[in-house]
Input
Amino acid sequence: MTKIPVYMMPGLAASSRIFENIILDEALFEVVWLDWMMPLPNESLVNYSKRFIAQKIHHANPVLIGVSFGGIIVQEMARLIPVHKVIIISSVSSEQDFPKRMKWAKATKLYKIIPTRLAKHFGLLAKIAPSKKVKNRIQLYRKYLSVNDTAYLDWALDKIINWKAKPIQAPLIHIHGTYDAVFPIQYITSNYLPIRHGTHIMILNRYRWFNQHLPAIILE
Output
């Protein structure tokens, strides 16, 4: 039996280790974890996706799974190559799904002055964070964030804020948590599979749900 190739793309600046608890049957699926490449100066999202495909995608007609910004990237890749299915998690399928604050940031260009350089200082922030909950969240970020280069972060933020979705031919499955604070559920305009009490990082803390349901979602 030919295995189904499944490529998994993490969220903004995240490492592929966010998928470490996602277990798919090795007899059915060939899973490939993806990690971010550095963008070229002023590189378009289309060109980045083309380079990514050339260097990272080595199977025909794969299933592409993307989390958050990774969900945007896999949609862009699906416009360029034939894919079996696209599954986005804690992400958006249209700029219409952005919350008001993101639309406002785009209109005012305020996102251009966000100090992304602070991403380099999670260690210091963990030491001075005022509560155990905040410290634990920062430690979690330190474990799973793999890219803190300001050029990448500035590029990614710009591409997210200014993204304009275009149709893809492959089936698109959208899985979204009802407690997602980054892309709040009330702004999601397309069809989606809701995960009750799921947050933006539910790929980490709701992995049992994904292990139970993801194989059927891929195969259906």
About this structure: Residues 27 and 52 are 27 Å apart (CA to CA). The two ends are 17 Å apart (CA to CA). The mean pLDDT is 87. Helices lie at 45-56, 69-78, 100-108, 122-128, 132-144, 150-161, 202-205, 207-219.
